[in-house]
Design brief:
This protein is an alpha/beta fold. 51% of the residues lie in helices and 12% in strands. The protein has 17 helices and nine strands. The strands form two sheets. It has a seven-stranded parallel β-sheet with strand order 1-4-5-6-7-8-9. A two-stranded antiparallel sheet has the order 2-3. The longest helix has 25 residues, at 149-173. It is globular. Bound molecules: coproporphyrinogen III (CP3). The site of coproporphyrinogen III (CP3) has 24 residues, from strand 3. Coproporphyrinogen III is lined by residues 2-6, 15, 20, 47, 49-52, 65, 67-68, 70-71, 118, 124, 134, 181, 183, 294-295.
Length: 330
């Protein structure tokens, strides 16, 4: 999840001086920002500080992350020629800095903490590339998908090939897990997801020589399709109780989730109640990664996050302060 977000003062101090892509282009600084939430909260894993649009930069796309808006693309994709102009190359050539940050994080992080690398899902990244900015309805995307299916499939092939190389490069650089964030896949019906997206997600996930997490939000109707497309772990948002989601996904898979990030804006009693409810529904079954159902909201009090990590650690027999001490030791 977007865990660093804007909730940490130590992150905000750095962000006041540099924009997101310029942090990413400085591997030392990127590694520092990546480690901040682990250092502060004692979580089990570091999510590499990057964005799903970083590999698009490597594909030659002019994209900016506009504060309070999200990714904005200068020349949205509208034709076969636009798709053909996308560069598919090895990440060592196009976004070497992103791989170097992973090497530094893996070097500096205690071995019991996992490094989570990631890529955007093909539907979600195509959404930004075609719409040019965040969209609620994905009208342009659907117009291209239904109206020019050959162009759509060419775009998906290019993204799947570029992202497969990108995640393979991340694993070579030291990522222990790869998460595929197809955040907006839920905008499609089950049949359209199967026809237009699933095989490309499968291609990316299959190319990873490490455990994978497949995540989408607003996709209660798509859970079994997502699980069929791949992922050792299926990330679920907060809309379904986790035991029901797990039944749909299949008990042979692991699940990640599923506290609503907005609950963290409530009083502690509510937060504790919701966290304990999720843990009880997961029932101590192996293969539950406790997490939020989506990214940390910027207005979240970091002290609440630390307390939540402690609660989940205590409830599941893990010693969070000891994990933090192990981190500080390195
Ligand atoms: O801990 C982390 O921050 C992990 C790194 C991370 C970022 N983006 C950094 C980021 C990750 C995993 C992402 C993934 C990402 N980016 C997704 C998939 C996950 C999800 O949340 O659904 C998506 C859809 C994006 C696209 C994107 N980037 C959006 C919608 C925004 C928010 C725009 C805003 O200002 O509200 C971003 C910007 C962004 N990417 C931020 C961070 C920390 C926030 C602001 C900043 O510091 O500039």
């Amino acid at each position: 999840m977007r865990q660093a977000g804007r909730s940490l003062p130590e992150y905000r101090r750095i962000r006041a001086q540099h924009d997101l892509f310029s942090i990413c282009r400085q591997p030392e600084l990127c590694a520092e920002v990546t480690l901040q939430p682990v250092e502060r909260h004692g979580v089990d894993a570091a999510v590499i500080y990057s964005d799903i649009m970083v590999p698009a930069l490597g594909m030659g796309v002019d994209v900016e992350l506009v504060e309070g808006v999200g990714p904005v693309v200068a020349a949205p994709i509208a034709s076969r020629r636009d798709v053909e102009a996308l560069i598919v190359a090895d990440p060592e050539e196009t976004v070497a800095y992103a791989l170097e940050a992973i090497r530094l994080v893996r070097r500096d992080l205690a071995s019991e903490h996992a490094v989570v690398g990631f890529a955007g899902g093909p539907l979600t990244v195509a959404g930004y590339l075609i719409e040019g900015r965040p969209s609620r309805t994905f009208t342009r995307l659907k117009r291209l998908m239904y109206g020019s299916p050959a162009v759509w499939h060419l775009l998906m092939e290019r993204l799947a090939e570029a992202f497969s190389r990108y995640v393979a490069g991340q694993v070579r650089a030291g990522a222990d897990v790869i998460q595929l964030f197809d955040s907006w896949a839920g905008t499609l019906s089950v049949t359209d997801y199967e026809e237009f997206v699933a095989s490309y997600s499968r291609q990316i996930l299959d190319s990873v020589d490490a455990p994978t997490i497949h995540f989408a939000t607003g996709c209660t109707h798509l859970l079994s399709s997502l699980a069929r497309a791949g992922g050792d772990v299926i990330g679920v948002d907060w809309r379904l109780p986790i035991d029901e989601a797990w039944t749909v996904v299949g008990l042979d898979r692991a699940v990640q989730g599923n506290l609503d990030p907005a609950v963290l804006l409530a009083g502690w009693d509510r937060i504790e109640g919701e966290a304990r409810r999720i843990l009880a529904l997961a029932g101590g079954r192996p293969g539950h990664i406790f997490n939020l159902g989506h990214g940390v909201l910027p207005e979240t009090d970091p002290a609440v996050l630390t307390r939540l990590v402690e609660l989940v650690g205590d409830a599941s027999g893990r010693d969070a302060p000891a994990a933090r001490a192990a981190f500080e030791h390195t």
